[in-house]
Design brief:
Among the domains are: about 100 residues, Orthogonal Bundle (Recoverin, domain 1); about 50 residues. About 70% of the residues lie in helices and about 0% in strands. With about 240 residues, the chain is mainly alpha-helical. This is EF-hand domain-containing protein D1.
């Protein structure tokens, strides 16, 4: 649909320029006036707009044909772009994303999404799967990146997804057991989560808790190693 709109816009632009060329030209004016016009040509904005429109149309056609090269983008930091999510939640969602990324290419394509929805107990039609991807597909590559995957849960928490949409089913089934909590429970869950994670200090508290947990694990490992050395020394004597 977007490619057709761009094509129609480009066609209308070309028709308008052809009509302009067919009109009678104005009579020559004074040399000073012509020199003034030459300093700021009127065709420059039109040429720039045509070039931009043509580039967008070419990009869209390449994407539809599967020949478009991926664009370089800035480094994605989920913790800064989605501050409403806790570190633990982002890591859990990253694990789920990698679980269904069977190709290990950093994307969930149409077939991988199909398998994911089937395992979650909410199978979708081919058209339904395409619409799910389209709703969060920011770069129009026909697959889900990790950022777009997180965007699903961001939209779900913000109430931007329909209750009967495939993405809402994915968000609910990935977070909680809807069969036990019910649809209302799922909605209350997302609303409570947004309120609980709205404080900026939440991130720092979770980071500190994670560091403390790592220190405890290291201390337990050190004690186990010391106990093993003592036991080994006792058997050696």
């Amino acid at each position: 649909m977007a490619s057709q709109e761009l094509a129609l816009k480009l066609q209308r632009r070309l028709q308008w320029e052809e009509a302009e060329e067919g009109r009678p030209q104005p009579a020559p004016r004074a040399f000073a006036a012509l020199e003034l016009e030459s300093e700021s040509p009127a065709w420059a904005p039109t040429a720039c707009a045509d070039a931009e429109l043509s580039a967008q149309l070419t990009r869209r056609l390449d994407i539809n044909q599967g020949t478009a090269r991926p664009r370089r983008c800035k480094v994605f930091n989920p913790y800064t772009e989605f501050p409403e999510f806790s570190r633990r939640l982002i890591k859990d969602l990253e694990s789920k994303f990698k679980l269904y990324d069977a190709g290990r290419d950093g994307f969930i394509d149409l077939m991988e999404l199909k398998l994911m929805m089937e395992k979650l107990g909410a199978p979708q039609t081919h058209l339904g799967l395409k619409n799910m991807i389209k709703e969060v597909d920011e770069d129009f590559d026909g697959q889900l990146s990790f950022r777009e995957f997180l965007l699903i849960f961001h939209k779900a928490a913000a109430g931007e997804l329909g209750e009967d949409s495939g993405l809402m089913a994915l968000a609910k089934l990935s977070e909680i057991d809807v069969a036990q909590e019910g649809v209302k429970g799922a909605k209350d869950f997302f609303e409570a989560k947004v309120q609980a994670l709205s404080c900026a200090s939440k991130f720092e508290a979770e980071l500190k808790a994670e560091q403390d947990e790592q220190k405890q694990e290291e201390e337990k490992r050190r004690l186990r190693q010391a106990a093993f050395r003592e036991l080994k020394a006792a058997f050696s004597t």
